[in-house]
């Protein structure tokens, strides 16, 4: 009978002894119990006897299975005792186990040490343990589907190479081609319990674009060039635009950026339907290139008539996410969410931050949304390019504080559209996004029309995986103290703490996805295997950092559900024999009895 010792710097000590009914009695010298160690709170209540009693209100309840026969359940009745200590108080739990585990508190964080226990733990403080050795990428990859990748073989190959989300760019293609992509992705998803690709519909938005040209037009520095609001014009010196108020929106002296700033022209004069420009930076003007005026946004509605048609297409075909272009304020998000609610559509809204007008309203836009995309191409066209890296970091940090997924997009492997290897700067760009804590990184032209789409995905996978190994768990997350009033957040934080300390993967059971998302927010070292009985939730969780969604029907018997989950993970090679795993369950989930509450279990995998 060796003790498990928990130490905490408090004025009073507590002594835990096991009872026959499986609970623990806690003795204390005071009736004013506010918290017990790091994991629990207690409230005072009056029993029928003359003495006071205290019943746990659990912030965390953790069952640590030290062997097949013995477990420690941190769940108790509390009753007063005359035991007192003048030294550093401690809680001693006596258990039938071969070795003690010592948990101490330092600067608000518990640390765990154990020499020769069957539960393998780190001898470092929590938050300082080394990353889990498993080689599974946690940052998700979004791939744009286009002519290079629209076939069944390519979509399946992209998924096997690492694609987590398939992006439908509604600026190109038609509903028939996008529907084919949706059907092929669903065909892939139907084959696997533990693999999934989500579908993101990216609206065209209120874009100003040049018209179609039979062949690229070469623009040279100093050349005069014209844009006209007349439809169908395409000559060596004049091209039409798709926006009737284009002439009214631009002013003499404005700098017009073409194709995300690849070319630039100065506005020299204008007439009723014609804008005369002088080329500053030349290049090849191709069909339907995006036009921006530096420092300005077009006075267009945020959701156009075409967007509404595409949104309805997404509702009819049950896509998982909308990426809404050029969101300038939160009203756009509220309007779209009201539309989705009226159509009983469970689709999450990702806002694309790519307009100068969105920056002053960033907080309200992110608050209204379900996530964000840092669309650096248009953002860099409307704002000075030196501001974009700072905005990227700021948007990622804001999304982390709001527990919302964030995607970093545009030009991540641009050179691989035409070349089989990336530039060193592109590799560094991916690494920075990963280290800043992005949930996902996105490929656009690289997979839509590039020559090496599979290589681009593999490069992104390799770079992300390598750089994740050096990122400290929870380093970019807000302080626990900022969420102390929220039971779910406290629980997710402590579950992450336990997983990091014991170096175990996390298995969570969820119907809504909320607990898996909270766990993802705290960035545990190990993978989060999220079991759900909802197909929509499985697909949605594909976007979240570190989450492997798995579909499984739940049983009313929790033990049976646990066993089937472990068997599935073992059969798929996600865990191995004799490995310990952290099981997370929440009383809010439908598979548990109503009187159940949050708790964690650490179990050893057996056949």
From TrEMBL:
GO cellular component: chloroplast stroma
Biased segments, Polar residues type: 104-121
Keyword Chloroplast (UniProt): yes
GO molecular function, one term: kinase activity
Catalytic reaction(s) noted: pyruvate + ATP = phosphoenolpyruvate + ADP + H(+)
SUPFAM superfamilies cross-referenced by the UniProt entry: Phosphoenolpyruvate/pyruvate domain, PK beta-barrel domain-like, PK C-terminal domain-like
Domain Pyruvate kinase barrel: 137-457
Compartments (UniProt record): Plastid, Chloroplast
Keyword line: ATP-binding, Chloroplast, Glycolysis, Kinase, Magnesium, Metal-binding, Nucleotide-binding, Plastid, Potassium, Pyruvate, Transferase, Transit peptide
Pfam families: PK (PF00224), PK_C (PF02887)
Region (Disordered), start-end ranges: 104-135
Pathway annotation from the record: Carbohydrate degradation; glycolysis; pyruvate from D-glyceraldehyde 3-phosphate: step 5/5
E.C. no: 2.7.1.40
Keyword Metal-binding appears in the UniProt entry: yes
Pyruvate kinase C-terminal domain mapped to chain residues: 495-585
Enzyme class (EC, first level): transferase
Top-rank taxon, per record: Eukaryota
Cofactor(s) the record lists: K(+); Mg(2+)
InterPro entries for the chain: Pyr_Knase, Pyrv/PenolPyrv_kinase-like_dom, Pyrv_kinase-like_dom_sf, Pyrv_Knase-like_insert_dom_sf, Pyrv_Knase_AS, Pyrv_Knase_brl, Pyrv_Knase_C, Pyrv_Knase_C_sf
Family from the record: Belongs to the pyruvate kinase family.
NCBIfam families: PRK05826.1, PRK06354.1, pyruv_kin
Protein name stated in the entry: Pyruvate kinase
Species in which this protein is naturally found: Vigna radiata var. radiata
């Amino acid at each position: 009978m060796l003790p498990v010792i928990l130490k905490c710097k408090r004025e009073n000590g507590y002594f835990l002894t096991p009872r026959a009914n499986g609970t623990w009695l806690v003795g204390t010298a005071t009736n004013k119990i506010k918290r017990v160690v790091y994991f629990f709170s207690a409230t005072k209540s009056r029993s029928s006897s003359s003495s006071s009693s205290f019943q746990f209100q659990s912030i965390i309840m953790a069952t640590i299975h030290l062997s097949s026969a013995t477990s420690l359940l941190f769940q108790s009745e509390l009753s007063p005792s005359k035991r007192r200590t003048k030294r550093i108080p401690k809680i001693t739990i006596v258990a039938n186990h071969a070795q003690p585990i010592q948990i101490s508190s330092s600067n608000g964080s518990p640390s765990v040490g154990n020499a020769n226990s069957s539960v393998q733990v780190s001898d470092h403080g929590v938050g300082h343990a080394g990353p889990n050795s498993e080689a599974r990428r946690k940052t998700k990859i979004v791939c744009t589907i286009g002519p290079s990748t629209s076939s069944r073989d390519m979509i399946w190959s992209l998924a096997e190479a690492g694609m987590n989300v398939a992006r439908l760019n509604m600026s190109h293609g038609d509903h028939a081609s996008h529907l084919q992509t949706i059907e092929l992705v669903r065909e892939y998803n139907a084959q696997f319990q533990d693999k999934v690709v989500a579908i993101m519909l990216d609206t065209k938005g209120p874009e100003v674009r040049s018209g179609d040209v039979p062949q690229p037009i070469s623009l040279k520095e100093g050349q005069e060039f014209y844009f006209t609001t007349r439809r169908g014009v395409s000559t060596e010196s004049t091209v039409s635009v798709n926006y009737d108020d284009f002439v009214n929106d631009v002013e003499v002296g404005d700098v017009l950026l073409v194709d995300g700033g690849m070319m630039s022209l100065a506005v020299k004069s204008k007439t009723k339907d014609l804008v005369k420009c002088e080329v500053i930076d030349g290049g090849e003007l191709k069909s339907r290139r995006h036009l921006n005026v530096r420092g300005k946004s077009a006075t267009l509605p945020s959701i156009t008539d075409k967007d509404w048609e595409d949104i309805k297409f997404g509702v009819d075909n049950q896509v998982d996410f909308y990426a809404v272009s050029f969101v300038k304020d939160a009203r756009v998000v509220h309007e779209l969410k009201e539309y989705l609610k009226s159509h009983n559509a469970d689709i999450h809204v990702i806002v694309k931050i790519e307009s100068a007008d969105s920056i002053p309203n960033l907080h309200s836009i992110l608050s209204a949304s379900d996530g964000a995309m840092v669309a650096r191409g248009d953002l860099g066209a409307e704002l000075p390019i030196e501001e974009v890296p700072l905005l990227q970091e700021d948007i990622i940090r804001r999304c982390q504080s709001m527990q919302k997924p964030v995607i970093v997009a545009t030009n991540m492997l641009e050179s691989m559209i035409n070349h089989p290897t990336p530039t060193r700067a592109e590799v560094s760009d991916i690494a920075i996004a990963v280290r800043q804590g992005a949930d996902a990184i996105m490929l656009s032209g690289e997979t839509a029309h590039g020559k090496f789409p599979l290589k681009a995905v593999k490069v992104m996978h390799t770079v992300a995986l390598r750089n994740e190994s050096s990122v400290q768990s929870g380093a970019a997350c807000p302080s626990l103290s900022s969420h102390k009033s929220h039971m779910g957040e406290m629980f997710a934080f402590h579950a992450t703490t336990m997983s990091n300390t014991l170096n175990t993967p996390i298995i969570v059971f969820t119907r809504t996805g909320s607990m898996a998302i909270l766990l993802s927010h705290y960035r545990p070292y190990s993978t989060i295997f999220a079991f759900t009985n909802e197909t929509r939730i499985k697909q949605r969780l594909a976007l979240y950092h570190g989450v492997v969604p798995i579909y499984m029907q739940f049983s009313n018997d929790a033990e049976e559900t646990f066993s089937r989950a472990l068997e599935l993970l073992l059969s798929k090679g996600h865990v191995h024999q004799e490995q310990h795993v952290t099981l997370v369950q929440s009383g809010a989930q439908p598979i548990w009895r109503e009187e159940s509450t949050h708790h964690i279990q650490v179990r050893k995998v057996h056949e």
